[in-house]
Specification:
The chain is an all-alpha fold. It is 70% helix and 2% strand. It has a domain at 75-175. The protein has helices spanning 35-91, 100-123, 126-147, 154-175, and strands at residues 2-3, 31-32. The model has no long low-confidence stretch (mean pLDDT 76).
Length: 179
Amino acid sequence: MPYCPKCGKEVADDAKFCPYCREPLKTSNIFYRREEDRDEKNEKDERDEKNEKDDRNEKSEKDEKQEDRASSSLMGGLVLLWLGVSFLLREYGFIRYASWWSHFLFSLGLILFLRGLLMYSKTSNLRSAQGFFIGGIIVALIGSSDIIGLRNWWGLILIILALYIILTGLGFRNKNPRP
């Protein structure tokens, strides 16, 4: 097989120019590689391919970490923003001083739930977002217990959610037994 003397890629026998680097080819310029050279080139190509794949994987991991940081910053900013807004609403009399904490917890639960929706929309994996969903619901229920008068019910609701989490965990463990 003929190869280009400039880039070393395989060219057709009757080629006048290298199709890759456009080097003019003369019959005296074209060289034929030995079988060993081809094996070395194939090994080098395989190594290069593996390195490129590793680089892509590292880049995607780096991108995921940046997205996680961005999401965490967004969530932290929303919590801090709501904290400030709720303080102002309390100061101006829109929220009673005694129920401020309930309003804050209810909204914090909604923010956590939204974080779960954001994670689910990115991964389409309900399991990865389940903690945010459950945590958001729990915090929102605790907050709403004072707002809507369910003071005596939220303990029972927490017990039901805890049992659900335990049963889900046991079901997951049975699907993936340890060797």
